[in-house]
Recover the amino acids of this structure.
């Protein structure tokens, strides 16, 4: 039996994201290479534990990598081989309590101001202005930008759920200039091939290149823009419930440790109306309105 193909089919049928499918198949492929087809079905819990221990000792992986490896194996044994009890007592690593890297308003201003390519500027602007995840920006279509209500509609975002976040005035101006120059056909951001989605790697390269150009020598990532969006909104006095809604946190149990530095972390969560979300000012608008006042 081609176990890798069987796992792929099951992942597709259960509508897992492309990134999750790619990640699970990567770890499963490594696992299958180290075990014969005949032994995979009969492997004991101790044998699987030994495999994971050797993996950890050899590669010294991050918490996320170990967790994804376990998730892939758990999926395979539970959903493909129908042996859900195999992983009942296999422990997971303790999740580190690390604070995310948040950019200051000054650093955001320097980064977004240094970008000369209008397409690159639009990509970074919309991530920060609306608090988007990398995958979410790649899946945005032209019709997802609601300039009348100043909202961004995200389809199948965090947790595979639709949500709405804010569209800042500064961001909208940049997007309009970008659209006039590039005229995308389907996706809001497309590769050089018309109608084909932009790649995650290209966005990461854009961020790193302009971070260096802005003289910001800190280990920030594209995801730091999303963390910064949330933190800056909290500093503006926006209620945490609204921030959770904008980020797509569907549960009060979602980790919100990056708010702890302000002492305002809470377990309260309620859905909020679109009308209230529209009243929230994007932190990008405050940054660039302040710059205009200084230059007057």
């Amino acid at each position: 039996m081609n176990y890798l193909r069987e796992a792929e089919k099951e992942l597709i049928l259960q509508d897992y994201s492309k990134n999750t499918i790619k990640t699970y198949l990567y770890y499963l492929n490594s696992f299958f290479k180290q075990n014969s087809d005949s032994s995979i079905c009969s492997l004991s819990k101790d044998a699987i534990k030994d495999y994971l221990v050797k993996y950890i000792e050899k590669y010294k992986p991050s918490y996320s990598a170990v967790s994804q490896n376990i998730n892939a194996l758990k999926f395979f044994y539970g959903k493909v081989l129908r042996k859900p009890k195999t992983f009942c007592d296999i422990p997971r690593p303790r999740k580190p309590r690390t604070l995310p890297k948040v950019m200051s308003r000054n650093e955001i201003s320097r980064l977004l101001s240094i970008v000369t390519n209008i397409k690159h500027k639009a990509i970074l602007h919309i991530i920060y202005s609306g608090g988007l995840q990398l995958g979410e920006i790649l899946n945005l279509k032209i019709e997802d930008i609601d300039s009348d209500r100043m909202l961004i509609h995200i389809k199948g975002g965090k947790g595979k759920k639709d949500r709405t976040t804010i569209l800042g005035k500064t961001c909208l101006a940049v997007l309009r200039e970008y659209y006039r120059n590039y005229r995308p056909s389907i996706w809001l951001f497309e590769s050089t091939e018309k109608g084909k989605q932009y790649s995650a790697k290209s966005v990461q390269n854009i961020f790193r290149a302009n971070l260096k150009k802005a003289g910001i020598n800190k280990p920030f990532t594209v995801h730091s823009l999303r963390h910064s969006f949330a933190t800056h909104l909290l500093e503006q006095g926006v209620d945490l419930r609204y921030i959770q809604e904008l980020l797509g946190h569907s549960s009060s149990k979602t980790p919100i440790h990056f708010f702890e530095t302000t002492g305002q972390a809470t377990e309260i969560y309620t859905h909020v109306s679109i009308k209230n979300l529209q009243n929230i000012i994007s932190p990008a608008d405050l940054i660039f309105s302040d710059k205009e006042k200084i230059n007057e």
